[in-house]
C-alpha cells in the first residue's frame, strides 16, 4: 500500500482521543485515522459496499410509484403558494 503524507488539523480533544486509543491499542495515530476513514466512508469503488447500500435502500418507498408520481408528490406546490 502506497502512503501519502498528509497534514491535518485536530482539536485538542480529538488529539487526546487519538493519543488515548493509540496507547490502549498500540496502533499509530495514522493507522487509527485510516481505519476511521475506511469504516466511515468505505473503499472507493468497493462493489460489495455499493451493493449493500443499494440493498439497504429497498423498501424506502412503501409502494411502487412512477418517477413522475414521486416527483409530483415531493413538489406539491405548497411552498411556492406562499410567494404569490
Automatic annotation (TrEMBL):
Gene3D superfamilies (UniProt xref): Met repressor-like
What InterPro entries does this protein map onto? Arc_rbn_hlx_hlx, CopG
Q: Which domain of life is it from?
A: Bacteria
Look up and give the organism this protein is from.
Microbacterium capsulatum
Q: Under what name is this protein listed?
A: Ribbon-helix-helix protein, CopG family
Q: Where does the Ribbon-helix-helix protein CopG domain lie? A: 5-38
Amino acid at each position: 500500500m502506497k502512503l501519502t503524507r498528509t497534514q491535518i488539523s485536530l482539536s485538542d480533544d480529538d488529539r487526546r482521543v487519538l493519543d488515548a486509543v493509540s496507547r490502549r491499542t498500540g496502533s499509530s495515530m495514522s493507522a487509527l485515522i485510516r481505519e476511521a476513514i475506511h469504516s466511515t466512508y468505505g473503499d472507493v469503488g468497493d462493489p460489495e459496499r455499493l451493493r449493500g447500500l443499494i440493498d439497504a435502500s429497498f423498501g424506502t418507498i412503501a409502494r411502487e410509484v412512477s418517477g413522475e408520481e414521486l416527483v409530483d408528490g415531493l413538489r406539491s406546490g405548497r411552498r411556492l403558494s406562499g410567494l404569490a
